[in-house]
Amino acid sequence: MAGYSIGHDKMRAKQTTVADLEPSRVAVVLIDFQNTFCHPDSSIREGVVSNRETALRANDFAAAAAHLGASVVYTQQILDVATLAPRQRQWARTEDLCRKGTWGAELFLPPIPDATVVTKHRYDIWQSAEFLRFVEATNPDGFVFAGVELCCCVLYGVLGADERGFQYSVPMSLVSGIDPGAKTYNRAVREFLTLIHEAPEEADGILEAWRDSQPSAG
Question: pLDDT tens across 46-99, in order?
């Protein structure tokens, strides 16, 4: 693993970063900032403080990025048993989170103007036909990932972009997981992303680079 990590780092060092791209060539992906995972009245309300704060930061980042020309997409994980494969249906429970038509499945914050909203039925956005249509229509060269939960939905998004050859960044300030995992599995995923992937602590540097690349007025 150590040898792979070193090779992967060297390979990435030669590549253009998301901050180097024109913002019009980048899509900001806000993954599953939904009431179940973020709202104070959620059934897991004692574990969503970090998620809620992250959602607010991510929405502000998305608005700033869109102003500079980036496209923005929000994903919603909607549990609809009818869309699941037989093996998945076997383990789906009636009390599962974000069931179709429930308040918990709704987005926690209103999407910014002109953003796209897509549905996915499991963790992986790359298995969502709606998300793939968004990618085909916007044809980005890179992504900035924000969202919850770190240990599954965010991680699938990042790995899928890597596998498909996109540039991407996953700022640590824009991703989160429920609070009980902060010192265990959330921390492990943060360490993994920081070691192997483009994962700056803050997202401000991306916006600053994009602003600096804008043509000067007059």
Answer: 789 999 999 999 999 999 999 999 999 999 998 766 666 677 666 665 456 778
Return the domain boundaries, the chain. Answer: 22-211
- String of b and e for 95-108 (b: at least 16 CB within 10 Å)? eebbbeeeebbebb
**How far, in Å, CA of 181 to CA of 150, rounded?**
10
How many CA atoms are closer than 13 Å to the CA of 206, on its beta-carbon side? 35
- Taking alpha carbons only, the member of 28, 55, 2, 31 closest to residue 155 is 31
**Cα–chain-centroid distance for residue 209?**
20
Tokens 């824009």 correspond to: 174
CA distances from 82 to 76, 78, 85, 90, 133 (A): 17, 11, 8, 12, 21
Whether the pTM exceeds 0.85: the reply is: yes
For tokens 């993994």, the residue is 192
Tell me which residue has tokens 């253009």: 16
Question: Which residues are CB-neighbours of 159 under 8 A, at least 6 positions away?
Answer: none
Class of CATH domain 22-211: alpha beta
